[in-house]
Amino acid sequence: MDPSSHRNPETEWFQDSHALVSLPLAPSVRSKLQIAGFRSTRDFIRIAKNSASVLARESGLTLEEANDALKAARHGGEGAALKGARSAAEVLEDERRRPRTVTCCEALDDVLGGGIGSGEITEFCGCPGVGKTQMCTQVCVSASTPEAFGGTDGEAVYVDTEGSFMAERAMDVASALVEHLRRMEACESDSERRTEMKAALEGYTAEKILSGIHLFRCHEVTELLAVLETLGEFIAEHPRVRLVVIDSVAFHFRQDFQDMALRTTILSKMTNRLMSIATSRDVAVVTVNQVTVKPQQDGPARLVPALGESYAHACTTRVILSWENDERVAFVTKSPRLPQAKAKYTITAGGIRDVRRRRPRDE
Amino acid sequence: MGADATVTASTARDDGVVDVSANRAIADGTADDARGRTRVEIERALRWGVDMGDFLCGCEKETGKGGWDKGCWGGGRGDGGGARRRALREACVAETLANAVNGTSIERGLSMLEILPTGCDAIDGLLGGGLRQGEVIEIVGPSASGKTQVCLSAAASFAALGHRVVYVDTGGGFSATRIKQFHRGFLTEDADEGEVARNLRQTLDLIAVHRCHDVFSLLHLLSQLAEEASEDDNNPDRATMGLLVIDSLSSLLSPLLTKAHHQGYTIMATVAATLRGLATTRKTAALYTNHTVSAGQDALADDHGSNLKPALGARWTSVPHRRIRFAKIPGTVWFSASVAYGVTTKPARYRIGSNNIHGETER
Amino acid sequence: MSAAKLPLDRLRVDLDLAAKLESRGCRTVEDALHRAPLDVVELADCSHARAREFLLDVARAVAPTPTTARNVLERTSLRLRTGVATLDDALGGGMRVGSLTEIVGKAGAGKTQLCLGACACAAASASDGGADGGVIYIDAERKFSGERLIEIARGKFATLRADETAARALARRVQVITPMSLSDLVKRLDALEEAIIDHKVRLVIIDSVAHLARGEFGRERVVQRQSALGAAAATLKRHAEKHGLAVLAVNQVTTRIGSAARHASDETGAGEGVGAEESSGITAALGTKWAHCVNTRIALEVRDDRRSIKIVKSPIAPLTSFDYTIGAHGIECATKP
Fold it and tell me: Which keywords has UniProt assigned to this entry (chain C) (predicted)?
């Protein structure tokens, strides 16, 4: 026995006998294969020499089923799209260079590490009226910021489940952003950067920004699930999309599902789908959640994010928006790379902005 | 002395312990140094039956070497502490084998060597030194309790010690910036910046990040890793794989937990068996996270009376060798970690800092 | 018919799989999409790849078609006035078409008066200065008064004071219905679609939602009440968007009797702005879930002798407040803010 490999013959047998289960096959196909004596993918190679017709003959499958089985063995399910590993060094480069979508409130962008990042799910939750839809509108508009200004220069997808998206408001926010960028260009001292900025601002109007915001209006949870299934396809057809906003996840899930176990399963399927889109299409995903009142044994009832403990793990970064003494505060409670931190923000006619210290109210 | 060292080194390799940089260390001359100086200590340790893990963590304290940080780091002296440590370990192996009288003591000797720290001393204390290679450890805890942070710290620690790390990220929580911060935290403040940068590059290159969104691509990846085991034997220059991290395994598996069908459970059992088999075959530690969901009656009884239970619940209890439960201590920035079964030890308290995770009695 | 209930065999999908699923009890779109992916594989006995293809086909058939914000902008700049000039100005012209506006206040604050004012503005003909549309007035509390409506209308539109026939025509455009409960309301709305189109209804007023909800579900059945509210809100919004009408809903207030009340029921509270932090402990009824459904919330506050209208939640308006009185002609604003 080769000591260097430390192979345990028991483990090996156990692994191989289950190897067929690890393939995404149809149950009847799997049982036919097992009856025919196939134990693992090695047997496909050994017995069937990787040929579909031989496999079909040996196991009693149809040619099509045999083809499916071989394909599954080769790629391992959805892993066909597996991008393969990246080294941490490459990831570090990405984290440094890749532009993030800003909220236009500097304090909040700071606690978010520069803004909302791609390849992850950022969740905003809060009471009604605290500004979740405003935040979504703002980031949809900011997603269009040209690269010359450090933006992601992209389009956005807004999945609206509550009917809260207001096109006029988006117009106001977009006009304010265009104004702001024009002012930045005018104040730029470096002539090279200035020419870049000028070129980028060519044709960059509020209408153009709004043409780049794709709205899906879902009136019920089935429509929401359908949109999520087809979103990958949509983004493939619209490769300029850099941001996906779901406003809100909680609305339908809280009322349309009585069976909690099913709700949890569907929510996790939805999250996996979103995570997969975020990674494979390299977009930022923003989800909006509501809050619910949770009675505590000690002390007053607390507001906690809705959809339960099992959903709390779905997002990569979680920001709770709330009111504190008449001011709006964003609290980053969960983040893989940043400590918990608070930031004050306000909502102006032009969108989400920092709180100015001089003026007591900026609304 | 040189010839002696070479002979012993190659004997060690023939007996199955693959230590890649033994040759390099010997060429550097540091191995001789290590062997000579620590022979006495090794003998003492073996005589007293001290756990090698403790020994290696404690030896710096005994020799009073300046610049050795907790967790066997030699970075402070800027002399490639990793190589020194590998040489030290190689010397220990050689010593064990030279003094061994039967298979059990070889096993015991070898198994005592393969404990590597996670980088958080409180957790390492709970684990008796760190993660043992070949062991499957589960971290279970509510959202934002530090699970991902500990995974990142362990990845950084193992890679910095020269082992390859495979990091499977399902939730977008991997952050290379954070790895860099942890890495810096392992070394003392006065470490030479150039050396730190070089070491960081090596560390980052050793971590491979995979994004997985469904269980079949995970199984595919695990089987690929199992196949690579044979490659390792043929390629001595390549660093051995030391750690597999899956963050989070429960989010991949919980969609399978539907009540209706058996196939879900079968797939879960396959994952469990493959994971354990892989850990043993490749002598790597496997660390994965399990999130929590709200329980009905069967809540985890912990100090804070929260009614949560692990997502991968009853059927999964026997899969990991050890299970650590994390919890946030409300009202503070501290977290508590405790081993869920086995020897009941006092729970450890830790907090997450900007470049390390440190325990309560931090220096 | 809602997308969820469409049968699978009517869609452009793999009919073999659809047949297999139907034999296992999975008939409609809802049955297919509301499942874990593994379930479909098991039920239909197909490979995962085929199951994914199938679900994708189903989704393509029922997913709503996207539009751009720019298109929406061109379509929905419409507003319906409430009749209170300062309030309309603050709201950017009035109540937004396609959304749910809520009025909250204590008894006697003037909620019904405000509703009647909005009703008058919507029903008055264009030549008189109104929106020239029909109104559906859902009168759960039996507070509607045709005479008061005409009185208010005359106050707002000078031309109606003399013209008797115009005033009566206005009243005829208002259809009053009295449902027994929330579920009754939802059913009736679905049935009213034809009438909505025929009479060019522009405004639906519900006076009051709290009354309907409380009548049907007592204090114990909070969970069912919440889900019925959510369903009602979704139906209302769907009609509002489809037919281009505005929905005005009246809500009551409840008093928060300290933390005891919070433990008793799960969701009484967190209506911010309406005394959420005040010592008087008043808050909007119907809980947080309903609060999330509402797009705009206007509070009528009465403190001592002073009455003020406060915009508490609005996607576009800043949170302002201004004083008002109730006069012969409905709500009148005393001063500009």
Answer: ATP-binding, Nucleotide-binding
Cα-based distances in Å from C170 to A278, C135, C329: 54, 10, 16
Q: Which residue of B lies nearest to A296 if distances are taken between CA atoms? A: B306
Tens digits of per-residue pLDDT, A216-243?
Answer: 999 888 899 999 999 999 999 999 999 9
Please give the Cα distance from B331 to B329 (Å, whole number): 6
Confidence bin at A111 (pLDDT 50/70/90): very high
Report how far residue C175's alpha carbon sits from residue C295's, in angstroms, rounded to the nearest whole number. 25
**How large a percentage of chain B has pLDDT more than 70?**
58
Does the pTM surpass 0.90? The reply is: no
- Judge: C55–A218 Cβ closer than 8 Å, yes or no: no
Rounded to whole angstroms, how far apart are CA atoms A17 and A70?
17
Q: Given an 8 Å threshold on Cβ–Cβ distance, is C38 in contact with B216? A: no
Does residue B51 register a pLDDT over 80?
Answer: no
Residues of B in contact with C38 (CB under 8 A): 255-256, 258, 261, 263-264
Across the interface, whether the CB atoms of C237 and A219 are under 8 A apart is answered yes
Query: Is A265 part of the contact surface with chain B (CB cutoff 8 Å)?
Result: yes
Separation between Cα atoms, residue A324 and residue A321, nearest integer Å: 10
C30, C79, C241, C288: best to mutate for the A interface, most A CBs within 10 A? C288
Three-class DSSP labels, chain C = CCHHHCEHHHCCCCHHHHHHHHHCCCCEHHHHHCCCHHHHHHHHCCCHHHHHHHHHHHHHHHCCCCEEHHHHHHHCCCEECCCCHHHHHHCCCCEECCCEEEEEECCCCCHHHHHHHHHHHHHCCHHHCCCCCEEEEEECCCCCCHHHHHHHHHHHCCHHHHCHHHHHHHHHCEEEECCCCHHHHHHHHHHCHHHHHHCCEEEEEEECHHHHHHHHCCCCCHHHHHHHHHHHHHHHHHHHHHHCCEEEEEECEEECCHHHHHHHCCCCCCCCCCCCCCCCCEEECCHHHHHHHCCEEEEEEEECCEEEEEEEECCCCCCCEEEEEEECCEEEECCCC
**A contacts of C99 (beta carbons < 8 Å):** 163-164
Angle between helices B30-48 and B2-14 (to 10 degrees): 60
CA distance C47 to C49: 5
Q: Are A290 and A254 in contact (CB under 8 A)?
A: yes
Q: A333 — contact with chain B (CB < 8 Å)?
A: yes
Phi, psi of B38 (to 5 degrees): -100, 0
Give residue C1's pLDDT: 58
Judge: domain B116-359, CATH 3.40.50.150.
no
Complex ipTM, two decimals?
Answer: 0.85
Q: Does B234 touch chain A (CB under 8 A)?
A: no
Neighbours of chain B (3+ CB pairs under 8 A): A, C
Q: What is the DSSP string of B142-198?
A: -TTSSHHHHHHHHHHHHHHTT-EEEEEESSS---HHHHHHHHHHHS-TTS-HHHHHH
d(CA A87, CA B208): 4
d(CA B140, CA B108): 29
Rounded to 10 degrees, the C-alpha dihedral C251/C257/C259/C265 comes to -50
**Phi, psi torsion values for A348, nearest 5 degrees:** -110, 180
Find, in chain C, the residue whose alpha carbon is nearest to that of B216: C48
The domains located in chain C, with CATH, are 3-62 (1.10.150.20), 76-333 (3.40.50.300)
CA–CA distance, B8 with C17 (Å, rounded to integer): 66
Closest CA of chain C from A201, distance in Å: 19
How much is the average pLDDT of C173-186? 86
Could you state, in order of their start, the residue ranges of all structural domains in chain B? Answer: 2-113, 116-359
